[in-house]
Design goal:
Keywords: Hydrolase, Metal-binding. It holds the Pfam family Peptidase_M49. This is Bifunctional diacylglycerol diphosphate phosphatase/phosphatidate phosphatase. InterPro entries: Peptidase_M49 (IPR039461). The chain is α+β, with helices and mostly antiparallel strands. It has ten helices and four strands. The chain has helices at residues 20-24, 28-52, 56-69, 72-81, 86-102, 120-129, 131-135, 137-152, 178-190, 251-264, and strands at residues 198-205, 208-216, 234-238, 241-249. It has a four-stranded mixed β-sheet, with helices on one face. A hairpin with a 2-residue loop joins strand 3 and strand 4 (241-249). Helix 3 crosses helix 8 (137-152). The mean pLDDT is 93.
Length: 265
């Protein structure tokens, strides 16, 4: 039996936020501002998926493809034909809602993983019976194969977000430990860089550890940008360790974020 903390209950509350009247009362200029700001937030949210867990983005795309082809009501008929009970289909909807609400398969408060409250073979049956799968089986098969095991995995390390052997993180490479994180923080502080916008990758360089810091940025060239007298990028020696700072992490999405923020401005 799986501990109930790793499931979202079928009777969990879902609140609909109705913005229709509030939006109607805005001026045309205010409506444009709200629209462009929401688009920037949408593309920024996609980065959150990539920063939550290795599988979150693929699960998101899998669900998006399913729900873009069929409404929940239509999918319910598909689920029944595929052998799912009403409770199992409700568990599927709750899992999807949880993934959208948290932008990943870990709770944004508590960092605990949650898995679907229905058997894996039942979820697979629904995925394969969906219109999205029928129309594009190759792409859907690839998404399901790459994420299905991790969707349900509750191996000790995968039960929560954390560093090293204590959990899953995409902010650090898998060989990083707490000492590496603390060293990197001291380096970033010395360069006046925020750790919130970075990822850290550790590799061996001739027997000595080398750390690559990737800055989330629409700009991909390692040059000085607005607000900098000189570039923060390059190779540095810090506490007898090598650090390399590069721009351009998540650049395709960051370009979208910047574009819509400029439109909002």
């Amino acid at each position: 039996m799986v501990d109930s903390q790793y499931y979202l209950p079928n009777d969990i509350g879902i609140s609909a936020l109705d913005c229709h009247e509030a939006f109607r009362l805005l001026s045309p200029q205010e409506k444009k501002y709200a629209h462009y700001l929401s688009r920037a937030a949408w593309y920024g949210g996609l980065v959150v998926l990539l920063q939550t867990s290795p599988e979150s983005a693929n699960i998101f795309v899998l669900l998006q493809r399913i729900f873009r082809k069929q409404t929940p009501e239509q999918l319910e008929d598909v689920a029944k034909a595929a052998g799912l009970s009403s409770d199992e289909y409700q568990a599927f909807l709750v899992y999807a809602a949880g993934l959208y609400a948290n932008m990943g398969n870990y709770k944004s408060f508590g960092d605990t993983k949650f898995i679907p409250n229905l058997p894996k073979d039942k979820l697979e049956a629904l995925v394969r019976a969906s219109q999205a799968f029928q129309e594009n089986p190759t792409a859907m098969e690839a998404l399901w194969s790459s994420s299905s095991c991790l969707i349900y995995s509750l191996e000790e390390r995968q039960k929560q977000l954390g560093l090293g052997n204590k959990g899953i993180t995409t902010y650090f490479s898998g060989n990083c430990c707490l000492e590496d994180a603390e060293l990197a923080q001291r380096f970033l502080d010395s360069k006046k860089l925020s750790a919130y916008n970075t990822r850290l990758f550790k590799r061996d360089n001739g027997g000595k550890p080398c750390y690559e810091v990737r800055l989330a940025s629409a700009v991909q060239k390692d040059c000085a940008v607005d607000g900098e007298c000189e570039s923060s990028c390059g190779s540095f020696n810090f506490e007898d360790k090598e650090f390399i700072v590069k721009r351009g992490d998540y650049s395709p999405l960051m370009e979208k974020v910047c574009h819509y923020l400029q439109q909002a401005q």
